[in-house]
Every structure is written in C-alpha cells, then in structure tokens.
C-alpha cells in the first residue's frame, strides 16, 4: 500500500517503508497529481504549475513520472500513475493520502455531531486533526496548484477544529474549553462560530458578564475588519444570554435563514461589490427577488431566462443587492463583450485577478472565496459561458453564479427561473411611475387608466417596452401612444420570430422614429462605446458638439445618466445599444479608435508625474474601450494602430499587473505588422520586455529589449535608445550575462544630457540595480539615492519607490535593518496613495523581512500572508519577478518564528485589506518617530 502525506512536509511510504521522492521539481510533479484529487492533469498544466514560464521539454516531465513510478509502484505491475489522454492521473483507489483521510474523518465527525452523537464524533475529529503536521503543500510556496488546496484544506481544518470544540462542549467540557476557545478566537477573529462557542462556554461556566463581553468583542471585530454586523447565530445567542435561558448554545450553528426571515432581521451590510446604484424605483415583481434568492440558497448556478426587455437584469441586480455575501456581488456585463476569447480576461478583470487568463486559472485563484458572480446578458456567448461556468464552479467551491440569458446554460445542477411578463396591474404601476417622472404632477383620469391597462397588455407586460412608452408622455397623450403602438404591432406580428421580441423591437424602432435626424445620428454613433462615456467622449466620437442631441436622448430614455458621476457619464441601455449596432458607421468606429488613442497619448506622460493616481483610475474605467479599439483595429488589419496604442498603455498595464492580456495584444499587433517602422515597434518591444519581466520570463524580456535597442538605433531617437539599452542591461544581468554593467552605464550616459528628469531617475534606478548585481554596493546605494531624489522632485512615484526598494535590499544585506524598515514603510505608503498594484504587493512582501529582523517577526509573517493573498487575487507572485531575493527574504521571516506561530500569523495576514495594511504601516511609522 502506498501512502502520501501533504499535511506538512511531503512524505511517501510504500509497503510501510519511507521512499525518497527526489528533488523539488520531481516532488512538485507528484504534488500536482495529488492536489488534482483523482482527476487527470494535462502535461501542459503540470509543466506550467511546476516550471512556470520556463517549462522544459515534455521529456523531462516524463522522466520524472518514470522515476516516481519506480519508487512508488513496488507492489506489482499495476500502475499507480496512469496515462490519460495527454496527461496523467494518480489513482485514488491505489493510494492513501492524509489530506483525503482527514476530509473523510472530519465529514463523518460532523455528521455524527449533527445527529446528536458527540461522544462518537469526538474521537473521529481528534484523529482527523492529528493528521496535520504543518502547512499543507508548504514546500511548494504560492504556486498555482498549491494555493487553492491550501485554502481549501485550511477552511476544512478550521471547521473541524470548531466541530471538535462543539463536541467537547456538548459533553460538558465547558470550563476546560475556555482557554482553548480564547486562543481560537484570537487566531481566527472573523469566525463567528468560534465566538459563539466561546460565549456559550463562558455562560455555562457561570460567567455571564464575560460571555456578553466576548460577544461585544466579536461585534467590534466584525465591524472594524469587515464593516458588517454579527450574523443571526451571534444575535440569537446574545438575546438568549440576556434572557438567561437555560438551553443557551444547545443547538449547533444554525443553517442559513430563509430569505424573508433574514431580510426582516438585518439589512444587508456594505461590502466590496461593483453593482451600479439603481436609477429608478423597483416597481412590481415584489415577491420575485425572494424566490430567486431561495433558489440561490439551494443551487450554486441560477439562470434567469426570458425574452429581451423582460427585466432579467433588473431582477438579478435587485436580488444580488439584498444578499449578504462576504465577497461581492460582482457584476460582469457581457453584452459589450464581442470576442469570446476575452471572457476569462473580462471575468478576472472584474474580480481583480488580472493575471488569470483562463477559467481554470481563475477558478484556482478564487479557491474557496465566498463570491456571488452576476453574469448579465449571456445569450450571445452561451457556449463559451457554459464552459467557463462549468470550470469555475468545479474549481471554486465558494462561488455562486446568477446569470441572465435568453436561454439556459444547460448545465447539471442549474436552476432555471423563467422571468415572466408583468401582470396588468404591475405594468400599470410601472407605467404611471415612469410617466410621473416624465410629466410631474400628471394624474390619469379613469379613461386614461383604462387605456394604460390596455397599452400594458398590448406591450405583453415587457418592462422595457412599458418604460419606453411611458417616457413619451412628455410629448404625446396616452391615447396617442396606444394608437401608435397598435399600428406598428399589427405589422410586426405577421413577421417571423417570437411576438414579444418583435413587440420590443417595434417599441425601440418607434422611439427611434420620433428622433430628429441629428438625434438619430448621435444615437447610432454612441452605440460604438463598450461602456459609459462622458460628454467630451461623445463629442469626439460624433466629431462635433452634441450637448443638445444628448440632452434630448436622455429625456427620451434612450440614454441613461450614471448618477453621482462628475463629470457626468452616460450609458445606452443594452437593448438600445444592440439596436444601434447594425447602424454604426465605420466612420464612427474610426472616430472611436482615434479618441481612445488620443486619451492614451494624453495619459501616458501623466503616469510618470503627480497626476499618476487619477490618471490610473481614468484608464481603468476606459479599459473596455481599449479592448474595443484594439479588436476593431486588428479586425481591420491595422496592426500599426494596435502597436501604437499598446506602447502608450504599457505603463498602465505594468502597474496594474495586466500581463497576459497586454502581451496578447502586443504579440497580435507585431504579427499583423511585421514591417512596421521602428517608431512603432520600439515602444511595443519596451512594453513587451517589461511585461515579460513581471511574468518572470527573463530570457524573453532580454530578447524583447534587444529588439527595442535595434529599433531605437534605426530611429535615432536618443530617449528610446537610452531606455532600451537600460532595459537590455537589466534583463541581460538577470539572465547571467557579463557585460550588463557596461551597458547600464552607457544607457545612463545617454539619458543624462536629455534633460528629462523621469528618464534620468529611471536610468539611475536600473544602473543602481545592476551595480548591486555586480557587488558594487556603495556605488549602487549612492546611485539609487540620487534616483530617489530626482524621482521625488518630478513626482515619479513608481521609480522613487523602485529605487527605495533596492536601497532597502542593500540595507538588509548590510545588516542595517532599522534603516531598511524606515525606507520600506515610506515606500509602501507612497505606493498605496498612487493606486499601484504590482509594486505595492512587492513592497508588502519586502517589508516583511525588515520587520522580522527588527524584532517584529509576527508582523512580518502577517505581511507575507497579505502579500500572498493580494498577489494571488491578480495572479502575481513577487517570487517569480524577483527569484534572487524574494524567496530568501521569505525564509528570514519563516525562520524567525516556530512553524505553528508563523502559520497562525501568516493566515491572519491573508485576511488583511489594503486599507488595514496602510493603517498598520502608518502606526508603525508613528511608533518609530517617537
């Protein structure tokens, strides 16, 4: 029998004898197969997980598989690792894995506990927890396959620990449990069940005041850390203790309450989400949000189906707003997505996981995050959405999906909710509500009331059609509206297609017919936008001032206003946008591309100055437009445009960790324009080498820098040549070349005379970096200090922080730990203010060893956990970008604490928000200033 242990350092035995699993890569290959839990893993996936970007030929992998088979398969010819398709599978029936054994025991123990048999549950839970020897898959760090398993197993361990406490409590061990439970709530302050158990033990021990104090502590922690109130379990327990009930805590942790009850007891808390605020009152469908919520409670995938304009999106948003999910809800508007291959990138962008370019990778990164994902308007991407949702739900155990589509996704376990037309009375209420906004003070007489009801029936109860009709009350009477609709519906019902769809289209066409020629032209052109737009953008795409026409379109409900925006932003309803797409002039698409390019040209230099933070936010909002413009250009074969735009967006992509998508656009543009001039290829190759650096592919970064140098010399542009030479020196050094110092100094000498402060600061930073590689530490520090001074003078936050990061490394190497800590705190706070993502994660990771080496190892462990968590959310790892120092720095922190203590603080760090990390850094800085 073969046994494999992953709940701690990885071990294996065959027939009771310990076997040697070989070096780190070979052990990692086996770990990938174990983590797959009996599923086949393709060769490509194993190579990516184990070797990352520098994967070897498949022959190396196959030789590792052969060795593993030889050491593990000692009992006969039957294979333990079997070939399946283009990959391998570890046979679950032929191997015993401690993680699976733990899960089985914990599940059985929980079942016995729920059946009221704590005396039988106790030994099973004890046995399950005794299998843990340390961090699961710990030796494999933060690799793509290890992180989700660590998160899954960590969650199971927390649950099993609390079930064990519950069993001991049920058997009368409340007095002896208090100390253990106090420690448990310190280690897991966000676990409401842990606080319940502690308060119950205190109360049963006759310590009512301390029990209430514990509940107040729980309330404070949840409010400060998450901004939420305690859940129903804690509230019921507090009420029971106040009432001095005898049976306090007798029942296990309650299941989730029905939706109506939860709505009555506590309003949904504010949390991280991206749902738009409603622009109008929700009329009708009073019971439907609760019905959809009940389905979401029981099913992980719920799809709202029905014809266009039936109100699927509004119902989904109203349902999502009322839910108390810990993460989200996150709205992904798919109607604006034209290219199915960008679905995973779009999902990861909304969820803040910019580095996840496939559904598989995104699912692994999400792990057990409790996320509600609202996928709106899936009908034009049903096949690709179906595959993506199937993958995400199978890999992310905490994910729930609420989709809207004109057809179901047809997946196992999917609950389909057919959104029906509004009943006449609800349609009448909706019409009058919207008409009152169009004509304040208007009250229908009895005859008009009858006409409104007839009109709603003839509109088939479609909310969008009713709203569009009501908007015309500003210029037409109810009788005129009804008469106009009757004429048009009679014609359309004779044509092909569903009646309701034809009715909606006629409603839109009729509203369109009422527009002036100038208003129609503006509406058609506005359909080119992928998302919201402001007045200047509208004027740019329409190639003239459009305030009058835009105002008219807003009044006629064909364009909506995004409330609270300044300057005001506008958006076309999705049905209206779909209506305009067939009428969009190629000239409008060209104007849109020109506007996007002009915006990027204006933004690029600002990313290196005092307006970098606000510019980054603006570019983030414009990302859908970047994608539309790049797609449009590539479809037209205009690789030159794509090269130009990619070069301008490169710093934005770098700072936000948009690595894979950026590289995809650059590669497509280069392939499409092989003979493009150096003025286009040089910035594109500089962009490519930077993004390859973030991906940890240093040879590819060096090659791209080489191309940039050659292009810059052909162009005879001293600025681009200096920048290219400096990058070539840096990536040559990272690849082990020997002439890197000479190249860097040459680049610095080229940059200095140009009078560009930002370029000189960047040149000094790179030169200082390679000086450190060469062992010239004193010269490196002086060079980097000069870079900091110049970057600070011109407000170039990224280079200022990058040079500080390198100075911090030098000080850590020299034993100047206090000075390194001071520098690191200043660096982190500046990056946080600037809105940077990737460099901020690196700063958090680098600050951890400085804290550990200055007597604060627990804080260091917390920051390592925070860096791991926030990096994983965007698919970024400091260790991949900085393999020379980052792993060594992490070891400093690990070695400064006993393993169990390190794991506790590391786990606590994973729950820290960016705002909380900033508050901690400010507190540490104030303490040091005293």
Automatic annotation (TrEMBL):
Residues 1-92 form the OmpR/PhoB-type domain. This is BTAD domain-containing putative transcriptional regulator. It comes from Actinocorallia aurantiaca. SMART domains: BTAD, Trans_reg_C. Residues 245-274 are annotated as: Disordered. Pfam families: BTAD, HTH_77, Trans_reg_C. Residues 253-263 have a biased composition (Basic and acidic residues). Belongs to the AfsR/DnrI/RedD regulatory family. Residues 1-92 bind DNA. Keywords: DNA-binding. It comes from the Bacteria. SUPFAM superfamilies: C-terminal effector domain of the bipartite response regulators, P-loop containing nucleoside triphosphate hydrolases, TPR-like. PROSITE patterns: OMPR_PHOB (PS51755).
């Amino acid at each position: 029998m073969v046994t494999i242990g992953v709940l701690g350092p990885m071990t294996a035995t065959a027939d009771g004898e310990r076997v040697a699993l070989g070096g780190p890569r070979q052990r990692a290959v086996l770990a990938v197969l174990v983590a797959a839990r009996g599923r086949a893993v393709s060769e490509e996936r194993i190579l990516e997980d184990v070797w990352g970007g520098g994967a070897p030929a498949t022959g190396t992998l196959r030789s590792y598989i052969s060795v593993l088979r030889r050491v593990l398969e000692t009992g006969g010819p039957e294979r333990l690792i079997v070939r399946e398709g283009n990959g391998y599978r570890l046979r679950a029936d032929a191997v015993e894995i401690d993680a699976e054994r733990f899960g089985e025991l914990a599940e059985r123990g929980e079942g016995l506990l729920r059946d009221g048999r704590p005396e039988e549950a106790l030994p099973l839970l004890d046995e399950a927890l005794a299998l843990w020897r340390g961090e699961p898959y710990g030796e494999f760090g933060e690799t793509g396959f290890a992180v989700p398993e660590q998160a899954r197993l960590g969650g199971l361990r927390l649950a099993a620990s609390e079930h064990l406490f519950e069993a001991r409590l049920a058997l009368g061990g409340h007095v002896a449990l208090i100390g253990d439970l106090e420690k448990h709530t310190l280690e897991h302050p966000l676990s409401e069940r842990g606080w319940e158990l502690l308060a119950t033990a205190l109360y049963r021990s006759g310590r009512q005041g301390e029990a209430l104090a514990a509940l107040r502590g729980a309330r404070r922690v949840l409010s400060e850390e998450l901004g939420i109130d305690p859940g129903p379990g804690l509230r019921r327990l507090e009420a029971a203790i106040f009432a001095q009930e005898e049976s306090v805590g007798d029942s296990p942790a309650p299941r989730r309450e029905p939706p109506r009850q939860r709505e009555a007891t506590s309003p949904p808390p504010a949390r991280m989400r991206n749902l738009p605020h409603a622009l109008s009152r929700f009329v009708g469908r009073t019971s439907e949000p609760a019905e959809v919520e009940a389905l979401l409670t029981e099913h992980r995938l719920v799809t709202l189906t029905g014809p266009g304009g039936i109100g699927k999106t509004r119902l989904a948003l109203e349902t999502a707003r009322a839910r108390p999910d810990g993460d989200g809800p996150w709205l992904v508007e798919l109607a604006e997505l034209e290219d199915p291959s960008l679905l995973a990138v779009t999902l990861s962008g909304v969820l803040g996981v910019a580095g996840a370019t496939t559904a598989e990778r995104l699912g692994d990164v999400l792990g057990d995050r409790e996320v509600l994902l609202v996928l709106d308007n899936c009908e034009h991407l049903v096949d690709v959405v179906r595959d993506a949702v199937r993958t995400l739900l199978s890999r992310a155990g905490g994910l729930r999906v609420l989709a809207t589509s004109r057809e179901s996704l047809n997946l196992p376990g999917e609950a389909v909710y057919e959104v029906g037309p509004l009943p006449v009375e609800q349609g009448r209420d909706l019409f009058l509500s919207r008409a009152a906004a169009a004509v304040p003070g208007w009250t229908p007489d009895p005859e008009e009331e009858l006409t409104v009801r007839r009109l709603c029936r003839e509109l088939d109860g479609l909310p969008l059609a009713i709203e569009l009709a009501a908007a015309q009350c500003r210029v037409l009477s109810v009788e005129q509206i009804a008469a106009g609709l009757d004429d048009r519906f009679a014609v359309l019902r004779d044509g092909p297609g569903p009646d309701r769809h034809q009715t909606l289209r006629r409603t839109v066409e009729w509203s369109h017919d009422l527009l002036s020629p100038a208003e129609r032209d503006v509406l058609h052109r506005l359909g080119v936008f992928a998302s919201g737009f402001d007045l200047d953008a509208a004027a740019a795409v329409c190639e003239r001032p459009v305030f009058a026409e835009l105002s008219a379109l807003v009044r006629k409900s064909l364009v909506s206003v995004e409330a609270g925006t300044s300057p005001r932003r506008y958006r076309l309803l999705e049905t209206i946008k779909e209506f305009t797409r067939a009428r969009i002039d190629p000239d409008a698409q060209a104007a849109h591309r020109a506007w996007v390019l002009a915006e990027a040209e204006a933004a690029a230099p600002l990313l290196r100055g005092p307006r970098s933070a606000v510019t980054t936010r603006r570019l983030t909002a414009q990302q859908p437009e970047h994608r539309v413009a790049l797609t449009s250009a590539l479809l037209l074969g205009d690789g030159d445009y794509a090269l130009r735009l990619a070069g301008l967006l490169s710093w934005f992509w770098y700072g936000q960790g948009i690595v894979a998508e950026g590289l995809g656009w650059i590669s497509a543009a280069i392939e499409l324009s092989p003979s493009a001039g150096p003025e286009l290829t040089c910035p594109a190759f500089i962009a490519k080498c930077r993004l390859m650096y973030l991906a940890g592919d240093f040879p590819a970064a060096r090659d791209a820098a080489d191309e940039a140098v050659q292009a810059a010399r052909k162009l005879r542009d001293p600025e681009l040549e200096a920048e290219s030479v400096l990058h070539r020196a840096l990536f040559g050094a990272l690849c082990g070349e020997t002439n890197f110092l000479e190249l860097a100094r040459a680049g610095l000498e080229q940059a200095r005379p140009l009078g560009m402060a930002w370029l000189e600061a960047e040149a000094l930073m790179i030169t200082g970096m390679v000086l450190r590689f060469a062992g010239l530490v004193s010269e490196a520090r002086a060079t980097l200090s000069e870079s900091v001074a110049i970057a600070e003078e011109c407000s170039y936050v990224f280079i200022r922080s990058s040079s500080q990061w390198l100075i911090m490394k030098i000080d850590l190497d020299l034993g100047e730990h206090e000075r390194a800590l001071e520098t690191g705190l200043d660096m982190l706070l500046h990056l946080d203010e600037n809105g940077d993502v990737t460099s901020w994660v690196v700063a958090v990771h680098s600050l951890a060893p400085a804290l550990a080496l200055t007597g604060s190892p627990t804080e260091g462990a917390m920051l390592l956990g925070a860096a791991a968590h926030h990096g994983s959310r965007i698919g970024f790892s400091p260790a991949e970008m900085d393999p020379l120092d980052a792993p060594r720095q992490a070891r400093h922190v690990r070695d400064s604490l006993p393993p169990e203590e390190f794991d506790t603080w590391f786990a606590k760090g994973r729950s820290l928000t960016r705002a909380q990390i900033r508050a901690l850094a400010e507190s540490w800085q104030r303490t040091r200033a005293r």
